[in-house]
Design a protein that fits this description.
Length: 148
Amino acid sequence: MQRVLVLNGPNLGRLGRREPEIYGTTTFAGLTRHLVETGRRLELDVDVRQTDAEHEMLGWLHEAADEQLPVVLNGAAWTHYSYALADAVAQRTADLIEVHISNIHARDEFRHTSLTAPYATGIIAGLGLGGYDLALAHLAARRDARED
């Protein structure tokens, strides 16, 4: 099974409690269980991680680049201001799908810019937690197309 990292940045560990009108009521633990099961159905070995420490996220992105692992990335606030995150994403050696739970273009102006977008394979925004499912399905379809 192909391994995929699902990496989540600051405050996403508070899903279910943080602004449920924007992010929903599913907890991070619930999201993790769901994504691991979705991965099994897609024959993906999904490793879901979350951190509020930018250096830890950078290390995970370096790991993905070194091991040529596909990534689903919700960089959260770092997406909009972290040049270090953008530099790490630019080093990717496999597909990277940027995911945002909310529609970042319909929110505060500072959220309209993604520093990581130029280096991502694709971006999914505004589809709630279902955006993660779409990202995993896309990665599985890309894997299957390469195997044919």
